[in-house]
Structure formats: structure tokens, C-alpha cells
Design goal:
With about 210 residues, the protein is mostly helical. It is built from twelve helices and no strands. Helix 2 (about 25-35) packs across helix 3. The two termini are about 20 Å apart.
Length: about 210
């Protein structure tokens, strides 16, 4: 069922080619900045960092926190996000040197995920985003869109992150590109059709949806 839905989404929307970034570390930065805000706002903040040539682990650690706050302000919650950005960057530098070296690590996925979750400000969605899109690890990302869509479809009857993650990972082929595309397609579908106030009439999944709101 989950694979069938993936194929329907892919056929309709096409490949999304996530995550838009020029480096692995930029993905990490984006994963922190996108918490509780839109990607358009994140793009503005990342462009600010690029304009000061700060998209580098060591430069982020060296820059004054007040300056960092100013640059990432478009992403919102800049006081806490500046701290979180420094926290995750310190973790990477202190343990691996940089994000490229971290990506080459053969560390067990579960061990690495638990280490990321131990970093202050890194929750499950952020950790899985970093693992999947920055480090090319098979760790499915669950977000509010995933919960909304698949509960409405009747495929899942849970709001628990780990339960939903397990269902996806145990049901899908262990394919990195599929994981990446599926999450991106879910986001696109929920922005286009399965909104908070859903556009069921136009939705191409309406025939398999248990929520009859036409």
C-alpha cells in the first residue's frame, strides 16, 4: 500500500530532488533553520550566511552569537536556533571534524541517531532529516504532513513518531532515493491537496482515501 501510494505521488508530481543544498553541512543548517518555519524563510537566512561566507562548520563556531542571530533572523526563533546551530555544529566538529567526514563514518545508524538526539535542540524529525539528506543514511523522516496524510488515508492510525517511522521503514524497500523522494512528495501533496482544510475534490488519491469529505 505504501509503495503504491509512493508511485501515485511520483507519477503525479515527478521527482522533487530534495534536499536543495551545495554541501552536506548546508543541509544540516537547513534542517535546524526549517524548524517551525517555511522553507522560503530558511532560504533567506541561508543566503545571508552565504553572503558572509559562513556556511562552514568552523566559521559558524567562531562567529559571535549575536551576529549569527542577525543573519538567521528571517527563519524565525533566531535566538534559540542560533544556539541549536552552534550545538549541532560543535557536535559534528568535536566528534568527526566536519560533516563530510561524518558522512564517511561507518558508525551504526541507531548509535549515530541516538547521538544526534542527545544534542540539545535536535528532535527526531531533525535528526532523521540530517541522517537522510545530509548523511545518506536510511532513516525515514516523519513530519506533521506524514501524520496528516496517512491518517486521513486510513493507512496509519497513530500520531506516534516512532510507530509511523517503523511502519514506513518496515514496509518500503531499503532504497535511499525512494526515502528521500517519498518524504518530499508527501510535503508537496499536503501543500497542494491535503491541507489543513483539504482539497479532496481535486485530489488524485480520493479513491483510496477513507476520509470522505467531498
Amino acid at each position: 500500500m505504501l509503495l503504491n501510494i509512493y508511485k501515485k505521488l511520483l507519477n503525479f508530481f515527478g521527482k522533487q530532488n530534495w534536499w536543495p543544498a551545495e554541501s552536506r553541512y548546508e543541509v544540516v543548517v537547513g534542517a535546524i533553520l526549517t524548524q517551525n518555519t517555511s522553507w522560503k524563510n530558511v532560504e533567506k537566512a541561508i543566503q545571508n550566511l552565504k553572503s558572509y561566507d559562513l556556511l562552514d562548520e568552523y566559521k559558524i563556531l567562531d562567529v559571535e552569537e549575536e551576529k549569527l542571530k542577525e543573519l538567521i533572523k528571517p527563519a524565525g526563533f533566531y535566538n534559540i536556533k542560533a544556539k541549536r546551530l552552534k550545538n549541532i555544529t560543535f557536535f559534528i566538529v568535536n566528534n568527526y571534524g566536519n560533516t563530510e567526514k561524518l558522512a564517511k563514518s561507518k558508525e551504526d545508524l541507531t548509535v549515530l541517531r541516538n547521538k544526534l538526539l542527545a544534542v540539545k535542540g535536535v528532535g527526531k524529525e531533525t535528526a532523521d532529516t540530517i541522517l537522510l539528506y545530509a548523511l545518506d543514511r536510511l532513516s525515514f523522516v516523519v513530519d506533521s504532513y506524514t501524520k496528516r496524510l496517512f491518517n486521513r488515508l486510513g493507512v496509519i492510525n497513530s500520531d506516534d513518531y516512532d510507530t509511523i517511522k517503523y511502519i514506513f521503514e518496515s514496509s518500503l524497500p531499503k532504497d535511499l532515493e525512494l526515502y528521500k523522494e517519498y518524504h518530499a512528495l508527501i510535503v508537496e501533496h499536503c501543500k497542494t491537496f491535503c491541507r489543513k482544510k483539504p482539497n479532496c475534490k481535486e485530489c488524485f488519491l480520493k479513491d483510496i482515501c477513507v476520509r470522505k469529505c467531498l
